[in-house]
Amino acid sequence: MSERLRNSVCVPAEHLSRRTLLKGTLGTAAGGVVMNWGGLTDTAAYAETAKKQQKHCILLWMNGGASQFETFDMKVGRPTGGLFRPINTNLPGVEVCELMPKIAQQMDKLAVIRSMRTSEVDHPGGIYLMHTGYRPSANVRFPEVGSIVAKYQGREGSDLPNFIKVSSQGDAGAGFLGPKYHPFAIGSEGGLPPFSTSGMKPEDETRRHELRSFVEDRYLKDRNSETARMHRESYEAARRLQSARQAFDISGEWEKNRELYGDSEFGRRCLLARKLVESGVAFIEVGQSSYDSHADNFGWHKGLVPPMEHAWAGLLVDLQQRGLLDKTLVIWAGEIGRTPKINNRAGRDHYVRCWSTALAGCGIKGGIVYGSSDQDGVEVKDNPVTEGDFFATIYQALSIDPKQENLAGVRPVPLAPFGSKVVSDLLT
Amino acid sequence: MAEMIVDKPKLLWQLQFEGAWPMAVAFLDSGRRLVAGNQDGRLLMWDLPEQPPAIEPPKGKADRLAPSAPPSRMLTGHTNGVTRLVAAPGGKWIVSASLDRTVRLWDINAEPVGDAEVIVDIETRQEEAKRSRKDDSLKQPGIAVKTLASAHIFTGHQDWIEALGINDDGQRVISGDNSSNVYVWDLAARKEVTHWKGRRWNWIVATALSPDGQTALVSEYRYKRDDFDIPSSGLKLWNVADSTEKLDLMKVQFPKYMPDDTSYGAAQVWRKFVANGLVAADISPDGKLLALGQGGETDKGQVHLLDASTGALVRSISGHQYGVTDIRFSQDGKFMLSTGRDTSLRITQVEDGKEVAQLGSPRGGQFKDWLSSLAISPDQKMVAATDIAGFVHVWSLVGSEM
């Protein structure tokens, strides 16, 4: 297959077939399931336009669900308050938990949302929800935010994947966007997976590649096989990755950045994320594990939060010093919050009626605390933010229209769920 | 040295201390005078009558099995949770450690500095208000008490203090914080004797002084920084005189112990022994045995008995379901008492590890309420334990005499 022909093959999500068009038209006639037809027809062109902006996004994923009470929404003196005490920040009148002294000095860069109200209270559903903006569905495989950003802000033909996960969670993947936008996952210490490395000599590797290409070309000569095309693309991507492997190596930079990011694995991952942003990667997700503190909530958070917040603050400073913060959105979120009530295990359980997330960087107005909770942190007092609103705001901050649609089979699906609102107060 | 006799222990008192969890308790000069502290930083003292009144009918809480008594003093000063209490011999001095990063010395016989109203039954009142749909119970006055101020504040710690110990003559106190700092204090001179730092990142979660105050047992632990970033737990004996390491007990247990490696794999070397931290520690009155209790939420809260001279494991005792919260040797060294997250206080013979008594009974759902700390009276006839449900239980160990 020629290069021209290969490039003309669309993945299903981008392909508007005659049958699809017919079904879509019928659907519309029957009552209107297609709400934004324009979004469907111009999605590829829209993606190309968005990509020119070269924006990036880093998701700091607090797996298990960090407690809002032990981070951004303290209730000192209340029965729900817990053991930690607040500290002042560089925003007058705004306090955060004493576990976050470094972030306290970066609050002018952050938009903290204290009024998250989401709809999946357990981990699998919550992880899916807070990676896609949608609840799990048997009918539609929704793409993760990383895949969407990779599609709309990623670089075509880059040596590096456009969506990289560093020791993080979420198994929704690219969903209906197709494998092109699937995350490339690397381990806890930034090591590349075995399939992406080769122990062969370069000349042997080249010969093997030539042989594989020859066989693939022969196979594809008389066939139009999507699977074969994706197979070939995957190998090409892996080969290109070989030449860009140094982007994953932070050993040369770690010593001089150790203090800035804090001497922790999470700090190393955040430094790697910054390096990958510099290398042009559109979306990097960095995970930290173990926030599911049903027991010993205070000990768990005392263990986990300090290295996390140190690295997070270091990342913001580093991005800013390098002139990257304006075009890099940094998201801090997990799948759930934690209960106001402290149980008899000194723990907090799952809670989604009122919890906190934070945004910084690209498109975000810093120095904001948005929404609030009631005196015990049980309910949102004002300005509730749903998962849909959260993702709509993220896409808008990245100059991606949250109403832009892609096809899941024949169904047009907007990036953020129907009815989601962009929280414009958070945006520059 | 008083001998401990365990013969049909009997619950005498359930002192109400509702609100934040009671976490620490200490007897003063007798089994009738004790102090307990809670997670709000409140310290209350009780002077109990010689005989408890006949048991009141259950009221409010269904687990009420013995009478309460009003506190007589409130010790004011701490601004965050009290974590540990120790009393010096003689019943005059008590020392408290707190999450507010201070160690405070209290003269129980000092002149009161003020008056206060204390509500010790807030949860009972709230339940009553909810049941009756009237808030009359919430408007009832509290108990009038005199307040005491601390005689001295030992400063230096920069983080939560969760570990506290005292030597036999009450001259020296040791405290450890979550920034890995250990301080030894001279109570009479009210000054620091020495201090040192444990391993980077670790928290000092338990400590004890040898009877002569010359050797310190220090347990270090920290909840993980990530699944793949787990600082190594530490357990050492230290020479107090020059702040030097005397014996690395972890290295004795585990030749493959790699203290600088924070990987998941390195943590598996010591994980089974330490569980979620050896959070309770004591040294036997003859200085020959070390007792360490596995804390946190672990399947079986084991107590390890180690030979103090070699560090060798003498015996591991599995009594508590879930973690241990506190440990004390009896003054005669024959018994080891421990409290745990299974709402029980267990008394075990040191000689053979046989459990001779279990006080309290498991309460709660799948996970039980905790007895969070214990104290033994100077005459060895009474034991007390704080209960997160809002009680201080006091038992006579010789119920047969009652």
User: Tally the helices of chain A: what do you get?
Assistant: 13
> Could you state the order of secondary-structure elements of chain A as H and E?
HHHHEEEHEHHEEHHHHEHEEEEEEEHEE
Q: Averaged pLDDT of chain A, please?
A: 87
Helix content of chain B: under 10%
Strand order of the largest sheet of chain B: 2-3-4-5-10-9
Please tell me what the overall shape of chain A is. globular
Structural class of chain B: mainly beta
- The CATH C-level name of chain A is Alpha Beta
Number of domain units of chain A: 1
The total of helices of chain B stands at 4
What is the CATH C level class of chain B, in words? Mainly Beta
How many whole angstroms does the radius of gyration of chain A measure? 22 Å
Strand elements of chain B, count? 30
General form of chain B: globular
Describe the structure.
The complex is a heterodimer of chains A (428) and B (402). Chain A is α/β, with parallel strands linked by helices and 428 residues long. Chain A has one domain (3-197, 244-421): 3-Layer(aba) Sandwich (Alkaline Phosphatase, subunit A), CATH 3.40.720. Chain A is built from 13 helices and 16 strands. In chain A, the strands form five sheets. Chain A has an eight-stranded mixed beta sheet with strand order 6-5-7-1-8-11-4-12, sandwiched between helices. In chain A, strands 2-3 form a two-stranded antiparallel sheet. Chain A has a two-stranded antiparallel ribbon with strand order 9-10. Chain A is globular. Chain B has a single domain (10-401), classed as YVTN repeat-like/Quinoprotein amine dehydrogenase (Methylamine Dehydrogenase, Chain H, 7 Propeller), CATH 2.130.10. Chain B is built from four helices and 30 strands. In chain B, strands 2-3-4-5-10-9 form a six-stranded mixed beta sheet, with no helix packed on it. Chain B has a four-stranded antiparallel beta sheet with strand order 1-30-29-28, with no helix packed on it. The relative contact order of chain B is 0.15. The interface between A and B is medium-sized, with 23 and 27 residues.
